[in-house]
From TrEMBL:
<comment type="function">
    <text>Component of the F(0) channel, it forms part of the peripheral stalk, linking F(1) to F(0). The b'-subunit is a diverged and duplicated form of b found in plants and photosynthetic bacteria.</text>
</comment>
<comment type="subunit">
    <text>F-type ATPases have 2 components, F(1) - the catalytic core - and F(0) - the membrane proton channel. F(1) has five subunits: alpha(3), beta(3), gamma(1), delta(1), epsilon(1). F(0) has three main subunits: a(1), b(2) and c(10-14). The alpha and beta chains form an alternating ring which encloses part of the gamma chain. F(1) is attached to F(0) by a central stalk formed by the gamma and epsilon chains, while a peripheral stalk is formed by the delta and b chains.</text>
</comment>
<feature type="transmembrane region" description="Helical">
    <location>
        <begin position="6"/>
        <end position="26"/>
    </location>
</feature>
<keyword id="KW-0472">Membrane</keyword>
<keyword id="KW-0813">Transport</keyword>
<dbReference type="Pfam" id="PF00430">
    <property type="entry name" value="ATP-synt_B"/>
</dbReference>
<comment type="subunit">
    <text>F-type ATPases have 2 components, F(1) - the catalytic core - and F(0) - the membrane proton channel. F(1) has five subunits: alpha(3), beta(3), gamma(1), delta(1), epsilon(1). F(0) has four main subunits: a(1), b(2) and c(10-14). The alpha and beta chains form an alternating ring which encloses part of the gamma chain. F(1) is attached to F(0) by a central stalk formed by the gamma and epsilon chains, while a peripheral stalk is formed by the delta and b chains.</text>
</comment>
<keyword id="KW-0138">CF(0)</keyword>
<protein>
    <recommendedName>
        <fullName>ATP synthase subunit b</fullName>
    </recommendedName>
</protein>
<comment type="function">
    <text>F(1)F(0) ATP synthase produces ATP from ADP in the presence of a proton or sodium gradient. F-type ATPases consist of two structural domains, F(1) containing the extramembraneous catalytic core and F(0) containing the membrane proton channel, linked together by a central stalk and a peripheral stalk. During catalysis, ATP synthesis in the catalytic domain of F(1) is coupled via a rotary mechanism of the central stalk subunits to proton translocation.</text>
</comment>
<keyword id="KW-0066">ATP synthesis</keyword>
<keyword id="KW-0375">Hydrogen ion transport</keyword>
<keyword id="KW-0175">Coiled coil</keyword>
<dbReference type="GO" id="GO:0012505">
    <property type="term" value="C:endomembrane system"/>
</dbReference>
<dbReference type="InterPro" id="IPR050059">
    <property type="entry name" value="ATP_synthase_B_chain"/>
</dbReference>
<keyword id="KW-1003">Cell membrane</keyword>
<dbReference type="GO" id="GO:0046933">
    <property type="term" value="F:proton-transporting ATP synthase activity, rotational mechanism"/>
</dbReference>
Amino acid sequence: MNLNATLFAQFVVFFILALFTMKFVWPPLMKALDERAAKIADGLAAAERGKSDLAMAEKRVQAELASAQEAGQKRINDAEKRGQSIVDGAKKTAEEEAARIIAAAKAEAEQQITQAREALRDQVATLAVKGAEQILKREVNAAAHADLLNQLKTEL
């Protein structure tokens, strides 16, 4: 057995195996690796798009929350203003009602004072007539002296 012939035969077999591998095995392997690399690149791009979409969505959510808070605060302020105006209106109405009640009470008091004065005048006139009767020791006719008694009432 010749070492050179064996070495040459192994070289030829290796060369044939290398050609067969490069011709039939290598292209499908490279194609599979390229497809896998493309899928990984697409996945990474999709992840980046997802991150950017998430960041944009978070910004929109924050903006919506801010606008909702602002709208809520505006409604609260409007409600407080409306409540204050209702309270002010109620106070004004109560003050007007109190003034009306006080005026009515004053008018009623004046009327009662007037009635009391009239009653006192009548009583004073009656007492004056009785006093005059006592003084004169005779009866004074109230109907006959009505003008005199009315004059006396107005003086009192």
